[in-house]
């Protein structure tokens, strides 16, 4: 087993230590760091960025060649870690002798140590791991101010009554967070725009994790329902299929057959992931694509209709107006007038 110690409280120092331990090349673009690995120890990448408000975002997409332990110590800081596992699994303990808790695919986890114990992460060999870690610096001082903000609220939530007891929460599986993580990876903008988009999505992920925690603590209806990990993977694959083939004639029966899932489970999963039924989601994807075509191409309305998989122009006009409060022709005309009015 390989053990790596990270004794740092900054993103830059962390990536330098990761490079010293695992090799590879560290690239920096704006405030974002990326370590690429392809050697005897590991294959994959680690990305990270420090954001405003004491928030840091680190994403692992790695396959280790041997069981690997990552021991993280942040001197003089006691961050709260929000973890989400998109693929594979990892375990966590406070210190080497602490109890291990495992985080599996699609599960959320919240880790806090007010006493400043080391956080130890355990990665399995030959298993692709995709995990996101968001750390938030929380202070007692922030919780005592009138405008406590995010740090103070988190301190009150997870460090109740000044307790020095470590806190670990392994939550229900959550498909909405998986979608947000994929949106982060799909950001194509650079520089400040990318940073702002990433920060916005990180805040959404934090909100979803805290919401999941609140619901689980209150013992409300489990959001996972009867979905298994295999079924959730099938739902994500079906969602990706719709994004890639929105112009095809897609039916629920076809998706169920192709991805080996029952109609009820498919609908349950789409409601968890997208907040709507399969049919509604397909329609939303098509209308969104149509809006892009109307704005950015010279296609006429009929060409747009057929390019997104619809056969009825009147039906398309009806649902487009429901989404954008104007007809497709009015929308396209407005796009033409924008450069003139500018």
UniProtKB/TrEMBL annotation:
One of its GO terms (molecular function) is sequence-specific DNA binding. Gene3D superfamilies: Homeodomain-like. InterPro entries: Homeodomain-like_sf, HTH_AraC, PchR_regulatory_protein, Tscrpt_reg_AraC-type_HTH. Residues 236-334 form the HTH araC/xylS-type domain. Keywords: Coiled coil, DNA-binding, Transcription, Transcription regulation. Pfam families: HTH_18. Residues 203-230 form a coiled coil. PANTHER family: REGULATORY PROTEIN PCHR. This is Helix-turn-helix transcriptional regulator. It comes from Pseudotamlana haliotis.
């Amino acid at each position: 087993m390989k053990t790596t110690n990270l004794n740092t409280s900054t993103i830059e120092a962390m990536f330098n230590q990761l490079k010293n331990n695992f090799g590879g090349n560290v690239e920096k673009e704006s405030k974002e760091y990326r370590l690429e690995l392809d050697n005897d120890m590991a294959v994959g990448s680690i990305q990270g960025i420090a954001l405003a408000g004491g928030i840091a975002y680190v994403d692992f997409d790695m396959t280790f060649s041997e069981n690997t332990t990552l021991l993280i110590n942040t001197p003089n800081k006691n961050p709260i870690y929000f973890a989400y596992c998109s693929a594979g699994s990892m375990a966590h303990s406070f210190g080497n002798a602490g109890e291990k808790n495992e985080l599996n695919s699609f599960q959320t986890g919240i880790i806090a140590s007010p006493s400043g114990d080391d956080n130890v992460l355990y990665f399995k060999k030959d298993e692709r791991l995709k995990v996101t870690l968001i750390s938030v610096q929380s202070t007692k001082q922030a919780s005592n101010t009138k405008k406590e903000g995010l740090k103070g609220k988190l301190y009150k939530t997870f460090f109740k009554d000044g307790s020095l007891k470590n806190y670990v929460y392994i939550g229900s599986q959550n498909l909405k967070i998986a979608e947000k993580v994929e949106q982060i990876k799909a950001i194509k903008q650079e520089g400040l725009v990318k940073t702002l988009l990433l920060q916005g999505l990180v805040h959404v992920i934090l909100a979803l994790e805290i919401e999941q925690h609140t619901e689980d603590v209150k013992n409300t209806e489990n959001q996972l329902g009867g979905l298994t990990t295999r079924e959730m993977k099938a739902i994500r694959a079906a969602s990706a299929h719709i994004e890639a083939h929105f112009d095809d004639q897609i039916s629920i029966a076809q998706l169920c057959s192709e991805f080996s899932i029952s109609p009820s489970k498919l609908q349950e999963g789409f409601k968890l992931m997208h907040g709507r039924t399969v049919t509604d989601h397909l329609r939303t994807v098509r209308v969104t694509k149509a809006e892009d075509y109307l704005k950015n191409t010279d296609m006429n309305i009929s060409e747009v209709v057929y390019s997104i998989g619809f056969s009825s122009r009147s039906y398309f006009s009806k649902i487009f107006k429901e989404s954008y409060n104007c007809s497709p022709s009015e929308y396209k005309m407005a796009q033409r007038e924008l450069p003139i009015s500018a």
